[in-house]
């Protein structure tokens, strides 16, 4: 069976790819992730997947355009369903691409991550498969998550610290940034009179629950 595998990142691909192959699937990867920001992070993840291909060849279709405009157009980043919108944006493209290009079925490495909303991804993929008259392959490989990260480490593949969007980056690093600057700055008396520190905390921390890879 020709399987189109949406790849969210190289790290999440390591262990599940082997399992899918052992089941007899002929796997082709699809890198489509307009959610990944900022631009340098997007380039790092593209490069990481190509590094993976050097040690474990797999055909991959790359969507290399930086997708900030597409992300902002399709995702209600001020609402509570931002992650659901992001899942839908990517998986809708995958399901349509699978059908249009003659693949027997599709799935996504997002299902193999312990950091994502597994049931939401499963339900959404099943609905999109029906909508596009395609087939969705469901596997729960979350138990391979640690193994996949270990393999990525051994292969010296870049392992990101947050899901992908700029909001998850903020949620992941906001406390470390605060600690980085806390107590580490010193000013002269004159400088203290001209330096202002702004705290722009808002409700963004309440809106993001997407960590990791």
What does this 3D model show about the protein?
The chain is an alpha/beta fold and 213 residues long. The protein has one domain: Rossmann fold, CATH 3.40.50. Helix content is 49%, strand content 8%. The chain has nine helices and four strands; from the N terminus they run E-H-E-H-E-H-H-E-H-H-H-H-H. Strands 3-2-1-4 form a four-stranded parallel beta sheet, with helices on both faces. Helix 1 links the parallel strand 1 (2-6) and strand 2. The longest helix has 19 residues, at 82-100. The two termini are 27 Å apart. Residues 185-213 have low confidence and may be disordered.
Mean pLDDT equals 83
Mass-distribution shape: globular
Order of helices and strands: EHEHEHHEHHHHH
Which spans of ≥5 residues are poorly predicted at pLDDT below 50? 185-213
Q: What can be said about the biggest beta sheet?
A: 4 strands, parallel
The percentage helix is 40-55%
Tell me the span between the first and last alpha carbons.
27 Å
Strand order of the largest sheet: 3-2-1-4
CATH architecture: 3-Layer(aba) Sandwich
The name CATH uses for the topology is: Rossmann fold
Radius of gyration: 19 Å
Pathway: tRNA modification; tRNA-queuosine biosynthesis
Keywords: 4Fe-4S, Disulfide bond, Iron, Iron-sulfur, Metal-binding, Oxidoreductase, Queuosine biosynthesis, Redox-active center, tRNA processing
Family: Belongs to the QueH family.
Binding site for [4Fe-4S] cluster: 8-9, 83, 86
